[in-house]
Amino acid sequence: MTVIVLSGPIGAGKSSLTSILAEHLGTQAFYEGVDTNPILPLYYKDMKRYTFLLNTYLLNHRLAQINQAIQDKNSVSDRSIYEDALFFKMNVDNQIADPTEFKIYDSLLENMMEDTPGNPSKKPDLLIYIHVSLDTMLERIKKRGRSFEQLNTDPSLKDYYARLLKYYEPWYENYNASPKMEIDGNSLDFVVDEQAKRKVLDKIDQKLHEIGNL
Ligand SMILES: Nc1ncnc2c1ncn2[C@@H]1O[C@H](COP(=O)(O)OP(=O)(O)OP(=O)(O)O)[C@@H](O)[C@H]1O
């Protein structure tokens, strides 16, 4: 059984690597469904009001996916459940979200993800983190063109994205729910460069061997 989850900032290439990896390993791919998320555009308009609701929505959505992913046994998901708390905490630190709401969310997450006797663990077998710089992130956000993410829709988003990156590095360092590995998404453009794609897949295969899942 191999449950793999991708992680990394907006536009890091998580969804693309999910497709590539699911094809390579012959496993089921699970996607976040950004375009079907009814709260996300509201959140970008009013983060103060919608942080709690967005994260509650995402928690529910991701938990449903995890339940399916662990039944399918072999799967790749384009986003881990663990990163949402990073967004929420960042908003608390910037007085955008309420600390009590964060506490309730965080404890709900912990209870939901806790291993319980007789039930399969909801934790992944491997977390893959795609590291990107702010420039790469901004370039991809622009190229992809989701309207609510654009700097010309809201110029203050540049600071928001820069802050987000600063939260990601320590988050990855401290992540310990499963084995983990990092991919350099700046130098390895696995979407357009076939050689880079090969390199990334070899690195992942090697890690899966190392942890006894290939
Ligand atoms: N917990 C959260 N709080 C606030 N915004 C979130 C949260 N989770 C996701 N988002 C937003 O949802 C959108 C999609 O995020 P995500 O990084 O998961 O996918 P993506 O941008 O399609 O990534 P990739 O290009 O790497 O596949 C982004 O605008 C992101 O900021």
From TrEMBL:
Source superkingdom: Bacteria
Ranges for domain Deoxynucleoside kinase: 4-206
EC number: 2.7.1.76
SUPFAM superfamilies: P-loop containing nucleoside triphosphate hydrolases (SSF52540)
Coiled coil: none
Annotated keywords: Kinase, Transferase
GO molecular function, a single term: deoxyadenosine kinase activity
Similarity comment text for this entry: Belongs to the DCK/DGK family.
PANTHER family: DEOXYADENOSINE KINASE, DEOXYNUCLEOSIDE KINASE
Protein's UniProt name: Deoxyadenosine kinase
The organism of origin for this protein: Lactobacillus colini
